[in-house]
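Late entry, evening session. Most of the bench is empty. Finally got around to the prediction I had been postponing all week. Sequence below, unchanged from the version circulated by S.P.
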Amino acid sequence: MTDSAEVLVPQGYTEAELLIDGEWIGADARHSTPVVNPATGRAIGRVPHATAEDLDRALAAAEREFPKWRKLSPRERGRILKRAADLLHDRGDAIARLATLEMGKPLGEAKIELHVACEELEWFAEEARRTWGRIPPGRFGDTRFSVIRQPVGPAAGFSAWNFPIGNACRKMGSALAAGCPMIYKPGEEAPASALAVARCLVDAGVPAGVIAVVFGVPDTISRHLIASPVIRKISFTGSVPVGKHLIKLAAEGVKRTTMELGGHAPVLVFDDAPFDATLEQSVFRKYRNAGQVCVSPTRFYVQDATYDAFCAGFAERAKKIRVGDGLAADTQMGPLVHARRRDGIEALVQDAVSKGAKLLAGGERLGNDGFYYAPTVLADVPDEARIMSEEPFGPVAVLNRFTGIDDAIQKANALPYGLAAYAFTQSVANIHRLSDEIEAGMFGINSFNISMPETPFGGVKESGLGSEVGTEGLDAYLVTRTISVT
């Protein structure tokens, strides 16, 4: 049964489709759900849901095409990915606009996301040539040993809605470069953005059946795909609870997993850090994508001597941020992706204030249309407040003080998360010790720049398994075998 919500399609928006074995399948005559513009709260399109038969058809196509795709030389696979990156760049303005319409981020941020996605596709295109093995010196007479790396097989990719262009390039690009077909399920909130990436790949020469894009109830789709013997690799970007669930499903078939899960990134600001520069960077990065970023700085711990001034400066800057429709030229922060996200943030802030936190800025909904929430600053937040242990994934900065480096490290490492962490200090001794002891897969010192295509992106502890991008991103799709010949 199709959702009957009125759909007002804005100019330039493309209706979502399924991509199965080279066929684009629309929402007509099948179950679909609305795609909502978070800036207005109104439906702008429909996303079709895949049936069990659709999924089986995608699986059969991936199984059929795997032998041919894996035998295609890495050089030729790289050429296709490079052409796809060029197409993505050429179509960039239209695709970035899709991302803003679907999930709300300012258009300028969507264009940056697209630029980074192009760079990652280019990285995979180039790195595919270097998936070679090695021949170690022998030690058993005439026996020669070789170590080879080969594609693991068809993969299933699942990702959230917050970076719909980047996630699609990262998931499909890494699998394709390694020689693996992929069935990809993006977030239903932003389908057209991900489909635009898939269309670039198809137009660049990816054969029918090598990629599929499907939508539907996440648990239903994931259970069906992961249970299939065709799928040998699972890659997921999303929350910790869902990641744990998928790991359990994958364990039944002893299938490889890459899990990029949630975080609750600490930021340690020492007294010797450049005050104004650190403050400016912190506010800018905190409210990027309305805080809907897995590596978003969230728990700010500031050393005693500068704590009060840092709180005041953070709140002053947060209050000046222009919130509005991401398509407006002067917007600095857009809406949250849907009402559930806004309501969840509101509940966390109210809980913190009820337990003694000081509300220095924000803490309220904005406007009557859309899912806007004001950039919010909380100070002196007690540990028992939910926001201290639950990832907010929204425009809320949590500020507390620390005394010395031992206290800072203890606070930073207190949670089971370990995706990203940051520190600002000029002390070489601090830098060395923090580098050794902070528990995070990515650690930025005196900068929030912690990722580029050449470096692995992933967490430790409950923030994930394995890494994406970098050489590690390709390794995840390759099996290693030892061959001995006498």
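Two things to note before I forget:
The first helix runs from residue 52 to 71.
The chain has two domains: 18-261+463-485, 265-452.
Will write this up properly tomorrow.
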